[in-house]
Design goal:
Blueprint: E1 20-24, H1 28-40, E2 44-48, H2 51-58, E3 65-69, H3 77-86, E4 93-97, H4 102-110, E5 115-118, H5 123-137, E6 147-150, E7 153-156, E8 161-164, E9 167-169, H6 173-183, H7 192-200, H8 210-221, E10 227-230, E11 234-237
Helix pairs in contact: 2-3, 6-8
Length: 243
């Protein structure tokens, strides 16, 4: 079941860069469920399912926070966390585990984790911990605004509403989900595979060209030049054209 979405009061003014989160969790359904909920909160979320992949991605230094499971294939969470800290990466790390006990918590914190959450946990509690860690990491870390403004385009990811000027544009659930992936990473290239993973989940085995169908629908409903195609790489929300 998809986690509930915490609602936020719409913020005013121009949208800022969304916080980027990395989830390293080998329970695929849990990882993708968390990713869906956190994306709906307005975060840009990436997911990997292996400790070595998690270490490589986190070491790129582009993430504001890492949600890290302890029991992982490749490298366990303790070793991933310790390696990141040894390399000088100081992003907040929230560790997840099915274990429970003072020793496990002490070991996690000793390797450099900032917080610790034992499964099963409340999604609401996880979001609260994420926001607290982001606040701790710097000013304005209370969570990104769910309202994204690009010229006359307004996308409210909490209320799931889209406006062009004063006119509301009606989108299907899948159309909105595709647009949301582009919005939270505005100006970046989002691959077809990433959209498939976040919108259709890892179990989808249909035609990957379904993404093109939904992008075409968004271009018709919004503005053709708003969503650019980067040949061989994916799609990008062209923020300059939205002014």
């Amino acid at each position: 079941m998809r986690p509930p979405v915490t609602r936020h009061d719409p913020a005013q003014g121009a949208a800022r860069r969304p916080f980027r989160l990395l989830i390293v969790e080998d329970e695929r359904r849990l990882a993708l469920s968390l990713a869906g909920g956190l994306t709906a909160e307005g975060y840009a979320v990436d997911v990997v399912h292996d400790g070595r992949d998690g270490l490589d991605r986190a070491a790129e230094g582009t993430y504001d926070l890492v949600i890290l499971d302890i029991m992982l294939p490749g490298l366990n969470g303790y070793r991933v966390c310790a390696a990141l800290r040894a390399a000088g990466h100081d992003m907040p790390i929230l560790m997840l585990t099915a274990k429970d006990g003072e020793y496990d918590e002490a070991e996690g914190l000793d390797t450099g984790a900032d917080d610790y959450l034992t499964k099963p946990f409340s999604y609401v509690v996880l979001v609260a911990r994420v926001k607290a860690l982001l606040r701790r990491g710097g000013p304005g870390g209370g969570g990104p605004s769910p309202v994204h403004l690009y010229g006359d385009l307004k996308v409210d990811t909490a209320a799931r509403r889209v406006f062009l000027g004063e006119e509301e544009v009606t989108l299907t659930a899948k159309e909105f989900a595709v647009l949301e992936q582009l919005v939270v990473r505005a100006g970046e290239v989002v691959s077809k595979a990433e959209i498939l993973e976040h919108v259709w989940d890892f179990a989808y085995d249909g035609d990957p060209n379904i993404v093109e169908v939904y992008v075409s629908a968004l271009r018709r409903k919004l503005r053709a030049a708003l969503i650019g195609t980067v040949r061989g790489a994916g799609y990008r929300l062209e923020t300059e054209t939205a002014r």
